[in-house]
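Re-run with default settings, no changes from the original entry. Doing this only to confirm the output is reproducible before filing.
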Amino acid sequence: MSGQPSFAATPSALKGVRVIEMGQLIAGPFAGKTLGEFGAEVIKIEPPGAGDPLRNWRLMKEGTSVWWQVQSRNKRSLALDLREAQGQDIARKLIAEADVLIENFRPGTLEGWGMGYEQLAALNPGLIMLRISGYGQTGPYRDLPGFGSIGEAMGGLRHLTGEPGRVPVRCGISIGDTLAALHGVIGVLTALYHRDANDGQGQVIDVALHEAVFNVMESLIPEYSAFGAVREAAGSALPGIAPSNAYRCADGFVLIAGNGDSIFKRLMTAIGRSDLADDPTLANNAGRVARVDELDRAIEAWTAPRSSADVLAALSAARVPTGKCYTARDIAEDPHFRARDMILRQTTRDGYDIDVPGIVPKLAGTPGSVRTSAPKLGDDTDAILREMGLADSQIAELRAKGAIA
């Protein structure tokens, strides 16, 4: 690690919190990543052989996904076969000394291994167990397989994405998984506070992918309940709020949010449409919504022949919220991201340097940090087992039987 203030030793908000991560791919591991960034010790249990499938997702460098370098930083890797009795015994001993267990298996998987919450809480009454699944631990759909994309569909998000009358589109990332992970982290932090401030008892946090998506759907259900209104896809516009849309420039698109009353006046003045700025029927949002198509045409007639840089400069001077639709290159070259440590230079265990996202949120007193790079499979197996009191001969026996790698 080098070159960024975020990597300096700082007080850690979650120092002393031990997390056992059993999840794979995105939702569970993203929760573990977030806790690790704020000082928790995260031990990631991976199956011997291929390990977490995320190691092989998307673009690879030196045989490992570069996504892995972000998702698994600040973690220790224990290659342990949870399908074997000896592997389960080791996991139980680890969990007995842990604060948090994260898992995102299909409901019933841990129970089948004799590691349901009741059994684990008998060993560790203070255990907090984060369970992320497609549909939650209860209900008629609990046993159905679920991915983040299905959660986005069932949670109501996919119906709103895309252009009216066309196939729904995804936003390009696994937003359902990430929303579930963030809700899980909120649950873990809340449960840790309750445990330590009250009776020392842990609890289960049950996060369903579709519910995490549904939780951010704003007025979707109240509008249906009150008016029978079913919100539909609206492309890049913000339905019921105007003007707020993406507008074509000579070299791409910019987002312009001119929906505040005073902002609207400044926007119309900046684009040379004082007639619209001074129109009393457009003085409030309701009037603007009624003429949204007219307003969008007027704005794009001004943006279309101009470069995005010229549009941004003019509207920034007019104090109108606007922004370019950034690509990865735009983000990497933007000085604001660098100034706020949102792009960090990280040295991987394969020896190469790579830019990775920084840490959110920014805590003034106990900021997050990247203390270690992402591990290779089983990097920490022997060290963790020795810390548990196993002798080298016992470790060798477990490895010979395939329980560890």
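The domain at 244-331 is CATH 3.30.1540.10 (formyl-coa transferase, domain 3). The radius of gyration is 25 Å.
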